Amino acid sequence: MRVLVVEDQVELADSVARVLRREGMAVDVSYDGQDALDRTALTDYDVVVLDRDLPGMHGDDVCAALIAEGRHTRVLMLTASGTIADRVEGLSLGADDYLPKPFAYAELVARVRALGRRAQPALPPILSHDDLRLDPAQRTAFRAGERLALSPKEFAVLEYLLAARGRVVPAEELLERVWDEAADPFTTTVKATINRLRSKLGAPPVIETVPRGGYRI
User: Fold this and answer.
1) 159-194 per-position pLDDT tens digit
2) Which residues contact 117 (CB under 8 A, 6 or more apart)?
3) Which candidate among 20, 140, 183, 211 keeps its CA 20 to 30 Å from the CA of 109?
């Protein structure tokens, strides 16, 4: 899942990004509204976590611009005001969900995940292939009944490949959807992660390399 956090309070924005990254999400951070729109013009985000009370370009205007562009991106609006009137107004602007500050990080993660599922075609709650089972909600993966000890990035790559349902996924797409903007496009990190994942999945192999194409399960 690719997420953009838009929050002018640097400490809070960076803290939210760290929490979401620990959950295996690819997260970029923007500290003002115009920069956020510049980023969404270049990157297809699943979810934008948007502070409503941004200085300069207000969060309402950012939300309206995202909706006007017709993107599939889901918007989770944050605000220091938690009144019912504010929530109704925020949702009427086109936001998909609304979370007042202060909030529990566990709830934020759950809401982002729920919106991310809505941003993509419907998938079954358990992703599977032969004896391989992955539960995105519980963040667990099993093969032949044995739990796999996967890093957040390994889990995210496996989840993305399983969700592709046999489609060949280019390495560039994995880099775009699983890593954030800090990833070097010329890096071998995707190949290295795939190799570690194959080692942990064991035999028989389930991840196929398609020459000049990418990877598929």
Assistant:
1) 999 988 889 999 988 988 888 777 766 678 899 999
2) 123
3) 183
Query: 98-135: per-residue pLDDT in tens?
Result: 888 889 999 999 999 989 877 666 567 789 999 999 99
Burial (0-12, 13-18, 19+ Cβ within 10 Å), 181: middle
Does residue 102 have a cis bond before it (omega within 30 degrees)?
Answer: yes
Contact 100, 80 (CB under 8 A): yes
Contact 214, 63 (CB under 8 A): no
- Distances in Å between the Cα of 95 and the Cα atoms of 49, 157, 165, 171, 191 are 10, 29, 30, 32, 37
CA distance 144 to 131: 5
Q: How far apart are CA 99 and CA 48, in angstroms?
A: 13
For 9, residues 6+ apart whose C-beta sits below 8 A from its C-beta are 51
CB neighbours of residue 7 within 10 Å:
25
Residue given tokens 């796999």 in the structure block: 148
2-58 pLDDT tens trace: 999 999 999 999 999 999 998 888 899 999 999 999 999 888 899 999 998 888 888
What percent of the chain lies above the pLDDT cut of 90? Answer: 52
Helix (H) or strand (E) holding 193: helix 189-201
Q: Alpha helix (H) ranges present in 45-185?
A: 59-68, 84-92, 105-119, 152-163, 171-178
The Cα 136–Cα 178 span in angstroms is 14
